[in-house]
Amino acid sequence: MRHRYAHRRLSRTSSHRASLLRNLCTSLILEERIETTVAKAKELRPFAEKAITLGKRANTAEKPADVVHARRVASAFFHTGNRTGQDRLPDGGYNRPRPERTAGVAAVSKLFDELAKRYETRPGGYTRIIKLGPRKGDGAEMAIIELVDRPEKVEKAAPAAKETGKKPGFFGRFRRKKGDEAAESEGEA
Questions:
Q1: I need a labelling partner for 124 at 20 to 30 A (CA). Which of 72, 137, 170, 179 fits?
Q2: What angle do CA 132, 106, 87 make, to 5 degrees?
Q3: Cα→Cα distances 90→85, 87, 94, 108, Å
Q4: In a structure prediction context, what are the per-residue pLDDT tens digits for the chain, which is 189 residues long?
Q5: So where are the chain's domains?
Q6: CATH topology of domain 14-87+97-159
């Protein structure tokens, strides 16, 4: 029996599992849509929704200290910020420009600035899981997890596919030759 065993282990140690969830949550907040396995998506859903709820709580906080506290607690849901060891080299060059924000810092700022405002009237259910079917390599069930009510991004239209000259068949093994097309059209008529 499996009573009172919460969450999936995902074939990982607890520290590896926590790191995986933080990495997936960081990607979900930044990209707003990621593709992963169904088991990982189901584990990620409550993890990410707690982070978004923290962002909403900071928007309604009355004291500035509560906002700072919510940001610090929410930063535990993402990977760390800027690297400290390589920011300043021992040559004394402290007046260098700041390094770019890493994914964790960018995710926290996006969570509190953009997503908390977007979901301030929504009582919960910020994510959606769409099942895709088995992965070709190992048969793992794949899914897309995405944030609901996200603005639809207009993707660039793919350039028109060139005619490859392949005959429909088993993985396109049979290629048409220029003379075969004329012979087929005469044979059909």
A1: 72
A2: 130
A3: 10, 10, 9, 30
A4: 889 899 999 999 999 999 999 999 999 999 999 999 999 999 999 999 999 999 999 988 889 999 999 999 999 999 876 555 555 555 555 666 666 668 888 999 999 999 999 999 999 999 999 999 999 999 999 999 999 998 887 566 556 555 555 555 555 555 555 555 555 556 555
A5: 14-87+97-159
A6: 50s Ribosomal Protein L17; Chain: A, (3.90.1030)
Q: Where are the beta strands (DSSP E) in 6-134?
A: 33-37, 127-134
Distance, CA of 120 to CA of 59 (rounded, Å) = 8
Q: Is 33 exposed, middle or buried (0-12, 13-18, 19+ CB in 10 A)?
A: middle
